[in-house]
Design brief:
The structure holds two protein chains of two kinds. Chain A is an alpha/beta fold. In chain A, strands 1-20-19-11-17 form a five-stranded mixed β-sheet. Chain A is built from 17 helices and 20 strands. Classes of the chains: A alpha/beta, B alpha+beta. The interface between A and B is large, with 90 and 81 residues. The structure holds flavin-adenine dinucleotide and FE2/S2 (inorganic) cluster.
Chain lengths: ~650, ~260
C-alpha cells in the first residue's frame, strides 16, 4: 500500500521506569488547579455513558463548572445501560490467585500485544477503587449469603474477578454514575443538555475550545464555549449496521474531531462477540447479545457431519463436536472472544452450522441442568433465557440456544496519550471512544472498568494538568471560530436536505454494513479489502447524489440525524478498510487470511507492526496519513497467544 | 430460525400524528404489507417509515435505542396499553407474531401532563430526571468510598434492592395510571435506598424532597388502581408504593 508515513511524533507521555509506580510518579508531576480557581473553568463533557457521567460528576465534585450533553432524552439511557455481564476488578476476594499484575498481564496478552503497557497497568491498579465507589453509591451488586460481594469468572479469565448485578450490570453502574450526576445537577455544578448532538469541534489556536450542537427538538444550532472538551461518545460498531449496539450509537462526534485534527487509532480493531442471536433477515435492526456469562455453563457444539439436519436432541453425543473444548482443552468454552468467534465461523464455513441459515452454532445447557439443577441454572440465567425466548420463541431450558458472532465493541478510537488527551490539546477522549487499553481484542467485563476508570480516577487528575496551563474563559462564543464552524455544520445539514434522491439513509447504511462485514469482518484478505475500499467510495458518491432526507432542519427530524451519522460512517468505513489493509499481519480480532497458522490462528508480525496505527485526516478520506506509536513490552514478554 | 415464522402478514395501523405540543394531533391510517412474524414491532415501524421516506413523506417519529428492553426509551401505547399486549415486555421486545394478520393496531404516545408531547409518538420525560435530582442518590464524592466489603449486605437485602433498582425509567407506570402518578417510579428508587445501608443517612431528606418535586412536576396522586404494576415491563411490584408511603410518613414524624 502506498502510504504517507509520519514517524516519531507520537509519544504517550507516560513516565519511564518501573511500571508499578508510573501512575504515582506521574500524578505527582501533574500540575494542580488551585481549588478556588476550579469554578472559573468550564468543561464540556459530551456523552453521559459510564465514561461521560463519571467524568462529569467527578469534575463537578472537584469544583469545575460542567456542561454535559447527550443525544437521548435523558443521560440514563446512554448505551452503557445495555451491558449485561459484569465489571472486572483485581480485588482478589475469592483468593484464587488474582492480582493487579495478573489483570495487567491478562489484558496485555488478551489484547494480543497491541496495547500500551503503562495505560493497562494503571487500569488494573485503579480497578479496585471503582468497585468501592460503586458500592458506596448503592449499586446493588450480587452478594454471597454472608453479605460479601459475589464474583464470577468471565470470558477467558481463569480467576473470578467479575462483579455483577444480575444480567444488568451496565444498567446498575450507569444508574450509579447517573445518580452522582443528578446530585451535581441539583447542586448547580453540572448543567444538563439532553437531546443535543455534537456536530463539530471548535478549535482556536490549535486548542479545543468549544463545540457546536444541534438541538434535536428545535433543530437550532448552538455554540458552547469551554476551557476543555471531553469526548465520551462511545464506540462505532453500528458502522456494520447490524451489531449488538444501541441503534443510535454513532461515530459522528469522534469523526468530526478527527476531521479537525485528532488522530484516529487502530480503526480496524473491531470486536466480534461470539454469543449473539443469529441474523435472520433484511428487516432486522440489530443483533441481540446473549451475555458471555452463558459460556461459563453452556457448551458450544455443532454436528460432526456437515449438512446434518436432525433436531439437536436427535444428534447423539458421539456425533457432536464440542469444538472449543476439543481445540482449546485448557480454556474450553471460555477462550477469548476473537478466538471463539473465529472458531464458530470456521465450523459454519465447513457446512456444519445449524439453524435456518446455517450461520449458527448451539449453546447447550443440558449438561449444566443435570449438573447444577434447574433451579441454579434459572437463578443464574433466567433473565437471559427469557430474553432469548422473547426473541426467538424457543426456551433454552428445552432446546439449545443458537448463537452466532456479531460486531460488538470497537477497540479502535481516537488516539490519546497517557493523560487521555487527543492530538488536539484540550480535547480529551474517554471510554469506548478512545483507543487506549484493549489492544487488538478486549477481555469481557473490561469496558465498563475502563470507562469508569477514565471518568472517576484518571481524568480528574490529568485534566487539571492541562487546565493549569490555560487561562480560564478566554474564548467566548462570539469568537470568529464559532461562526466559521457553525457555518460548516449548517452547510452539511442543508446539503443533506437538498439532495432529494431516491434511497433512504438506511439503505446506504445497510449496504455499507454488508460490505464491511463480508470483507473487513471476522476474517480479512487483502484482495477483498482492496475491492471493498473501491465499493465504499462508490457508495459514498452515490449517497451524496441519491439519498433522500425528508422534512426540514428546524424541528425534530430523525431522518436527518440518521443521515448525518451514515454520511460519517461512509468515510470511517473506508478508514477501517485502509487500516485493515495496511496492517499486514494478524493480531487479536484482526485475522488476515494471508497471516495465519496451519490451524487458523493469527500470526503476528512484531518486528514490523508492534505499533499503534494512528491516522491523520488529509482532507481526502482515501488518503489518510499514518503516524506510528511504537509499543514497548518491558514487563509482559511478547509471546504467541496460546489458549491451547 | 424458529417455527414461529408462518408467512408474511399485513396490518392496518392507526398512528397518532402531531407535529408538536402546540398543534392539534390526530390518528392517521396506514397499511403495512409483507410483515414477517419474527419482526419486532419497532422493525415493523422502521419498515413503514422507509416506505414513507421513499415517497418523500414525513416518517412517524418514535424513539428507541437499545432495542433489548433495558434503556427505557421505546415506550408507546399500543391498542390502549403502554408497551402493548404482552405483560412485562417493552415495546422493542414485542414481536409481530403477537398480532394476527389483518388486525388493526392503534399506536399512541404516552400521555401525561408531566410528559409533554414532542412529536408524534415522542414525549419529554425529563420530569423524571428532575425527580431524581431531588434525592435519587447517595451523597458520596468520588474518592470517599470505603473498601467495598467493609459493610456486609445480606444476599436477600441486596436482591430486594436490585428488584427495585431494575426500573428502566420508561414511564409506562405514569402512562397507565388514571391519575398519571409517578409513585411506582419514585417508590422504586426510595425503596432501593431504604433497604441499603448506604441510603440511610439521607433517608428522610430524600423521601421528602423527591415527593415534593414529584408533585411539583404535575404527576397525580396514587389511588391504588394498580395499573402501573401490570404495565411495568420490569415487573416492579406495587409494594414499592407502600414503601414510598411509609418513608414519606416517616418524614412527617421526623421534621
Ligand atoms: C449489549 C452489550 C453488552 C455489553 N456488556 C458488557 C459487559 O458486560 N461488560 C463490559 O465491561 N462491557 C460491556 N459492553 C461494552 C460497554 O457497555 C461499552 O463499551 C461501554 O458502556 C461504553 O461506555 P461509554 O461511556 O464509552 O459510551 P456510551 O455508553 O456508548 O455513551 C455514549 C454517550 O455519548 C452520547 N453521544 C454520542 N454521540 C453524541 C453526539 N454526537 N453528541 C452528543 N452526545 C453524543 C450518547 O448520548 C451517550 O450518552 C457491552 C456492550 C454491549 C453493546
Ligand atoms: S429501546 Fe431500549 S427499552 Fe426498548
Amino acid at each position: 500500500m502506498d502510504l504517507e508515513i509520519v514517524d516519531g511524533d507520537l509519544s504517550s507521555g507516560a513516565p519511564e521506569g518501573p511500571v508499578e509506580t508510573r501512575w504515582d510518579r506521574h500524578r505527582f508531576d501533574l500540575k494542580l488547579v488551585n481549588p478556588a480557581n476550579k469554578r472559573k473553568y468550564t468543561v464540556l463533557v459530551v456523552g453521559t455513558g459510564l465514561a461521560g457521567a463519571s467524568a462529569a460528576s467527578t469534575l463537578a465534585e472537584l469544583g469545575y463548572n460542567v456542561e454535559n450533553f447527550c443525544i437521548q432524552d435523558t443521560p440514563r439511557r446512554a448505551h452503557s445501560v445495555a451491558a449485561q455481564g459484569g465489571i472486572n476488578a483485581a480485588k482478589n476476594y475469592p483468593n484464587d490467585g488474582d492480582s493487579v499484575w495478573r489483570l495487567f498481564y491478562d489484558t496485555i496478552k488478551g489484547g494480543d500485544f497491541r496495547a500500551r503497557e503503562s495505560n493497562v497497568y494503571r487500569l488494573a491498579q485503579l480497578s479496585a477503587n471503582i468497585i468501592d465507589q460503586c458500592v458506596a453509591q448503592g449499586v446493588p451488586f450480587a452478594r454471597e449469603y454472608g453479605g460479601t460481594l459475589a464474583n464470577r469468572s468471565f470470558g477467558g479469565a481463569q480467576v473470578s474477578r467479575t462483579f455483577y448485578a444480575r444480567g444488568q450490570t451496565g444498567q446498575q453502574l450507569l444508574l450509579g454514575a447517573y445518580s452522582s450526576l443528578m446530585r451535581q445537577v441539583d447542586e448547580g455544578r453540572v448543567r444538563l443538555h439532553a437531546r443535543r448532538e455534537m456536530l463539530d469541534l471548535v478549535v482556536v489556536d490549535g486548542h479545543a475550545k468549544g463545540i457546536i450542537t444541534r438541538n434535536l427538538v428545535t433543530g437550532a444550532l448552538e455554540r458552547w464555549a469551554g476551557d476543555a472538551v471531553l469526548l465520551c461518545t462511545g464506540g462505532y460498531s453500528t458502522v456494520y449496521y447490524l451489531s449488538t449496539n444501541a441503534v443510535n450509537s454513532n461515530a459522528t462526534a469522534a469523526w468530526r474531531c478527527h476531521k479537525r485534527g485528532a488522530l484516529f487509532a487502530n480503526p480496524c480493531f473491531m470486536q466480534i462477540h461470539p454469543t449473539c442471536i443469529p441474523m435472520q433477515g433484511r428487516t432486522q435492526s440489530k443483533l441481540t447479545l446473549m451475555s458471555e456469562s452463558l459460556r461459563n455453563d453452556g457448551r458450544i457444539w455443532v454436528p460432526k457431519q456437515a449438512g446434518d439436519a436432525r433436531r439437536p436432541d436427535q444428534i447423539p453425543e458421539d456425533e457432536r463436536d464440542y469444538f472449543l473444548e476439543r481445540i482449546y482443552p485448557a480454556f474450553g468454552n471460555l477462550v477469548p472472544r476473537d478466538v471463539a468467534s473465529r472458531a464458530a465461523k470456521h465450523v459454519c464455513d465447513e457446512g456444519r452450522g445449524v439453524g435456518a441459515t446455517g450461520l449458527a452454532v448451539y449453546l447447550d445447557f443440558k449438561d449444566a441442568m443435570a449438573r447444577l439443577g434447574h433451579a441454579t441454572v434459572e437463578q443464574r440465567y433466567s433473565n437471559l433465557f427469557e430474553m432469548y425466548r422473547e426473541i426467538t420463541g424457543e426456551s433454552p431450558y428445552e432446546v439449545p440456544m443458537q448463537i452466532y458472532p456479531a460486531p460488538h465493541y470497537t477497540m479502535g478510537g481516537l488516539w490519546v496519550d497517557y493523560n487521555l488527551q487527543s492530538t488536539i490539546p484540550g480535547l480529551h477522549v474517554l471510554g469506548e471512544a478512545n483507543f487506549s487499553d484493549h489492544g487488538a481484542n478486549r477481555l469481557g467485563a473490561s469496558a465498563l472498568m475502563q470507562g469508569l476508570c477514565d471518568g472517576y480516577f484518571v481524568i480528574p487528575y490529568t485534566l487539571g494538568n492541562y487546565l493549569a496551563g490555560q487561562k480560564p474563559g478566554t474564548v467566548r462564543t462570539d469568537h470568529a471560530a464559532f461562526a466559521a464552524t457553525e457555518a460548516t455544520v449548517r452547510g452539511g445539514v442543508d446539503k443533506l436536505l437538498a439532495i432529494d434522491g431516491r434511497r433512504t439513509a438506511r439503505d446506504f447504511h445497510w449496504d455499507l454494513g454488508r460490505l464491511l462485514w463480508d470483507k473487513v469482518g471476522m476474517s480479512r484478505d487483502p484482495e477483498g479489502i482492496r475491492d471493498t475500499i473501491g465499493k465504499i467510495r462508490s457508495l459514498r458518491e452515490e449517497f451524496w447524489q441519491n439519498v433522500r432526507v425528508p422534512g426540514s432542519g428546524d424541528s425534530l427530524n430523525q431522518s436527518l440525524e440518521y443521515a448525518g451519522r451514515v454520511a460519517d460512517y461512509l468515510e470511517l468505513g473506508e478508514l477501517i478498510a485502509i487500516d485493515a489493509l495496511h496492517r499486514d499481519e494478524s493480531c487479536g480480532c484482526h485475522l488476515r487470511t494471508d497471516h495465519q497458522s496451519a490451524e487458523g490462528e493469527p500470526v503476528r508480525n512484531d518486528g514490523d507492526f508492534s505499533y499503534v496505527a494512528a491516522w491523520e485526516h488529509s482532507g481526502d478520506p482515501g488518503r489518510p496519513r499514518l503516524h506510528r506509536e511504537r509499543l514497548a513490552f518491558d514487563n509482559v514478554h511478547l509471546a504467541v497467544r496460546n489458549y491451547k | 430460525m424458529t417455527s414461529a415464522t408462518n408467512g408474511t402478514r399485513s396490518y392496518t395501523l392507526r398512528i397518532w400524528r402531531q407535529s408538536d405540543n402546540a398543534s392539534p394531533g390526530a390518528l392517521v391510517e396506514y397499511r403495512v404489507e409483507d410483515i414477517d412474524a419474527q419482526m419486532s414491532f419497532l422493525e415493523m415501524l422502521d419498515h413503514l417509515n422507509d416506505t414513507l421516506e421513499r415517497k418523500g413523506e414525513l416518517p412517524v417519529a418514535f424513539e428507541s435505542d437499545c432495542r433489548e428492553g433495558i434503556c427505557g426509551m421505546c415506550g408507546i401505547v399500543i391498542d390502549g396499553r403502554p408497551h402493548g399486549p404482552v405483560p412485562n415486555l417493552t415495546t422493542c421486545g414485542l414481536r409481530m407474531r403477537e398480532f394476527e394478520s389483518g388486525a388493526t393496531i392503534t399506536i399512541e404516545p404516552f400521555r401525561a401532563s408531566a410528559f409533554p408531547l414532542v412529536r408524534d409518538l415522542v414525549v419529554d420525560r425529563s420530569s423524571f430526571d428532575r425527580v431524581m435530582q431531588a434525592g435519587g442518590y447517595v451523597s458520596v464524592n468520588c474518592g470517599q468510598a470505603p473498601e467495598a466489603n467493609a459493610m456486609p449486605i445480606g444476599k436477600d437485602v441486596a436482591e430486594a434492592a436490585m428488584d427495585s433498582a431494575a426500573c428502566i425509567g420508561c414511564g409506562a407506570c405514569v402512562a397507565s395510571c388514571p391519575n398519571a402518578s409517578a409513585s411506582l417510579f419514585v417508590g422504586a428508587k426510595i425503596r432501593q435506598f431504604a433497604l441499603l445501608p448506604q441510603g440511610q443517612a439521607e433517608r428522610t431528606r430524600r423521601a421528602r424532597r423527591m415527593v415534593a418535586v414529584m408533585d411539583q412536576e404535575g404527576f397525580g396522586d396514587c389511588s391504588n388502581h394498580g395499573e402501573c404494576e401490570a404495565a411495568c415491563p420490569k415487573a416492579i411490584s406495587i409494594e414499592n408504593i407502600a414503601v414510598l408511603r411509609r418513608e414519606y410518613l416517616r418524614t412527617l414524624v421526623r421534621r
